[in-house]
Specification:
With about 575 residues, the protein is of the alpha+beta class. Helices cover about 15% and strands about 35% of the residues.
Length: about 575
C-alpha cells in the first residue's frame, strides 16, 4: 500500500494522544538516534529515535486540527484503508495538518506511520465511549475499525509496545531524576608536582614528588529560567610546595611559587582561624544571580569571590585547563586583592552587572570577609560584621571594541584590620608594609588599579598583557608601600589537534616597588620574574592532561635566592 503523504506520520506524531514521542521509523531508519548536550552540566541525555521526525515538525508552523482529510490539498490517496480512515477522521477529528492545509509530502508513508493515524482514531473513539456517548459511534464505524485493526494488527501491537516501554522509561526517569530545577556539574583534578631551588636563607629544602587532588561539585539551580543559584562544594589535599622551599608567608597562603589550582588556604579559614582535615568537604560557593531589568542583573552571596562576578580577560584563566601557576592565570593583582580569588569563597558579596551593549560590560561589588560573625574576638583577626570588618569595594569595566580585542579595567578599594594584601601572589602579602615600627596587627588601606588586554591575532593565537598597582598605607602609622606586577604571553588553540591548547608566559610577580615613612623591608629588593610553558592535551571531551613547568627568578624578591623550578602534570576530569 502506498500513500503519497510522507508527512502523515510526522503530523500524527504531534497529536495530543500519547503519540508525540513514539519511535515510528525504527524499521525504516534503525540508526536514527540523537543526544542533547547540556552546556552547564556537560552530560548527555539519550532521546527516542523519533527525534529526527520531531525536529522536522519543529521547523514547520505549528500543526492545527482539521475536520476533513479533503482539506489537505496535496493528498491523493486511492487505497481502501485510507478511504476508510478518512471517513473516521472526518467524523471524529483525529488527525492534524498544517495551517496552510497541506501535508507537504512527496514520498510514500510507511505502514507504521499509517498505523499511528489509526491508533489516534481508536483512542479518540475510546474517549467518546468512556464519556458515555457510545450512541455517537455508528456500527459501521466500529466494523471499519475492526477491519483496520485486523489488517494493521502487527503494526498496532508494535506501536503500543513502544508506547508502554516509553511510559515505563518516563516513569523511571521521573522517579530517579536529580531535580527539575537543578543541574550538577563537577571537576576533579589530580596533580603530580615537585620543586627545586630551595631558599638557603630560610632552611628551605627541595620537595619530594607529590600526588594531590582537588574535587569540586557545583549545583546550578534556576527557579525562573533567568536566575541562577550556585552552590559549590569542594574537597582538596593540595599542600603548598612553597613552604618547604622557604618561599611562603607565615600562614602558607601566598607565594610566587603557588600552583594555579591550589586554594589560597588549605582547609584553613582565616576569618575565624578554624581548621579542617585534608579532603574535608566544605562550602566554597553560595551565590544567587537574578535579573532586575533588561540590561541589569544583581547578585548576592555569602560565599563568593571577585572572579565569580568579573569576566576573565586572560586566556590562561582556567584552573583546570589553563596555566599551571597561580600567577600565570593572568588575573591581575587588582582582581586578586582581599582574597578575591582565594578559591575558598571567603567573602560575602553583593553587586550588579550592567551591560548597555555587546561591547560594554560594567560590574561592581562590595564584599566583607566576616559578615557572619557578630563581634570581634581573639580568633577573628579580620574583624566582624558585614560593614565592620575587613572589606573590599571593586569594579571592572570590560570593553570589546572589536571582535578580536578584549580589554578589562579594574579598581578596588580595600580595608583590612591586619597588615595583609590578600592577593595570594607573594609572601609579601603578610606584613605587607614591613619595617621597624610596623606590625602584623596594624590596619591597612589599599587602592588597587589594574588592566588586562587580550588580542586574538588569529583564531588560534592570542596575545595577552596585564598589569597592576597596589598603593597601600597603614591607617595608624606613617608607612606606605607600592606594589607592582605585570605579565605577558601567548595562548595557542588547537595545537596539533582540535581542542589542545598551550601557553607561553613571562612576567613579574607582585613585588614591592617603592616605600615611604617607616616602611623599609630589608634583604628583599630584587625583582622576581616568572617564565612558564604548558601544554593542555585533550584525551577526550571530559578528560585533559596538562604537563608544564615554570621558573621563578629571584623568588619573592629575595636577594641572591636560587631560581625556583616547579614541574607539574595536571589531569582534569569534568562532568
Amino acid at each position: 500500500m502506498k500513500i503519497h503523504a510522507s508527512r502523515l506520520g510526522l503530523l500524527l506524531l504531534s497529536l495530543p494522544l500519547a503519540l508525540g514521542s513514539i519511535s515510528l521509523s525504527a524499521e525504516a531508519n534503525p540508526t536514527s538516534s540523537s543526544t542533547v548536550a547540556s552546556t552547564e552540566t556537560k552530560t548527555t541525555i539519550p532521546q527516542v529515535s523519533s527525534e529526527t521526525q520531531l525536529k522536522a515538525i519543529a521547523t514547520d508552523p505549528i500543526a492545527q486540527n482539521v475536520t476533513s482529510v479533503s482539506q489537505l490539498s496535496d493528498v491523493r490517496p486511492t487505497d481502501w484503508a485510507f478511504t476508510a480512515l478518512q471517513s473516521l477522521v472526518e467524523r471524529y477529528g483525529c488527525i492534524a495538518g498544517y495551517p496552510d492545509s497541506t501535508f507537504r509530502g512527496k514520498q510514500a508513508t510507511s505502514r507504521y506511520e499509517f498505523a499511528a493515524g489509526l491508533n489516534a482514531c481508536l483512542d479518540k473513539i475510546n474517549e467518546i465511549i468512556s464519556a458515555g456517548l457510545a450512541d455517537k459511534v455508528s456500527k459501521e464505524d466500529l466494523a471499519t475499525l475492526q477491519k483496520l485493526q485486523e489488517e494493521f494488527a502487527a503494526e498496532l501491537a508494535t506501536l503500543r509496545g513502544r508506547v508502554d516501554a516509553l511510559d515505563a522509561k518516563t516513569a523511571k526517569l521521573e522517579a530517579q531524576q536529580f531535580s527539575t530545577t537543578t543541574k550538577l556539574s563537577g571537576e576533579a583534578i589530580f596533580s603530580v608536582s615537585g620543586a627545586t631551588g630551595a631558599n638557603p636563607n630560610n632552611s628551605g629544602t627541595n620537595t619530594n614528588i607529590v600526588f594531590n587532588n582537588r574535587v569540586r561539585l557545583n549545583l546550578l539551580t534556576s527557579f525562573s529560567g533567568k536566575d541562577l543559584l550556585i552552590t559549590g562544594l569542594q574537597a582538596t589535599n593540595i599542600n603548598s610546595l612553597a613552604a618547604p622551599l622557604g618561599y611562603a608567608d607565615p600562614l602558607g597562603s601566598s607565594s610566587n611559587v603557588k600552583l594555579g589550582f591550589e586554594n589560597q588556604f588549605l582547609n584553613f579559614n582565616p576569618s575565624n582561624s578554624n581548621t579542617a582535615a585534608a579532603n574535608s568537604v566544605n562550602l566554597y560557593k553560595l551565590l544567587y544571580i537574578f535579573p532586575v531589568a533588561d540590561k541589569l542583573t544583581m547578585f548576592a552571596g555569602s560565599n563568593a569571590e571577585v572572579s565569580d562576578a568579573f569576566p576573565a580577560i586572560s586566556p590562561f584563566a582556567s584552573e583546570g585547563q589553563g596555566s599551571i601557576s597561580r600567577f600565570g592565570q593572568g588575573l591581575n593583582a587588582a582582581t586578586r586583592v582581599s582574597g578575591g580569588t582565594s578559591g575558598t569563597g571567603l567573602a560575602a558579596a553583593v553587586g550588579f552587572i550592567w551591560t548597555p551593549s555587546d561591547k560594554v560590560d560594567f560590574r561592581a561589588l562590595y564584599g566583607s570577609v566576616n559578615s557572619a560573625i557578630p563581634t570581634n574576638s581573639a580568633t577573628t583577626l579580620l574583624g566582624a560584621g558585614f560593614f565592620g570588618g575587613s572589606s573590599v569595594a571593586a569594579a571592572q569595566l570590560t570593553l570589546k571594541p572589536t571582535s578580536t580585542l578584549d580589554i578589562g579595567l579594574n579598581y578596588a578599594n580595600s580595608y583590612h584590620q591586619i597588615n595583609i594584601l590578600g592577593t595570594g601572589l607573594a609572601s609579601a602579602d603578610i606584613n605587607a608594609i614591613s619595617g621597624a615600627g610596623t606590625a602584623l596587627t596594624d590596619p591597612i588601606k589599599m587602592n588597587s588599579i589594574g588592566s588586562t588586554l587580550t588580542w586574538r591575532i588569529t583564531p588560534k593565537i592570542a596575545f595577552n598583557l596585564s598589569g597592576a598597582w597596589i598603593f597601600a598605607n597603614l591607617t595608624n602609622k606613617d608607612a606606605s608601600t607600592t606594589f607592582t606586577s605585570w605579565m605577558t604571553g601567548f595562548h595557542f588553540n588547537d595545537v596539533f589537534n582540535e581542542g589542545n591548547t598551550a601557553g607561553l608566559i613571562f612576567g613579574q610577580p607582585l613585588a614591592r616597588n617603592a616605600v615611604g615613612g617607616l616602611a623599609n623591608p630589608t634583604g628583599i629588593t630584587a625583582k622576581p620574574y616568572h617564565l612558564e610553558g604548558y601544554f593542555n592535551f585533550k584525551l577526550s571531551k571530559n578528560i585533559s592532561v596538562t604537563p608544564g613547568v615554570f621558573f621563578v627568578f629571584n623568588p619573592e624578591g629575595i636577594n641572591n635566592a636560587p631560581t625556583a623550578t616547579v614541574g607539574v602534570v595536571r589531569t582534569t576530569f569534568t562532568f
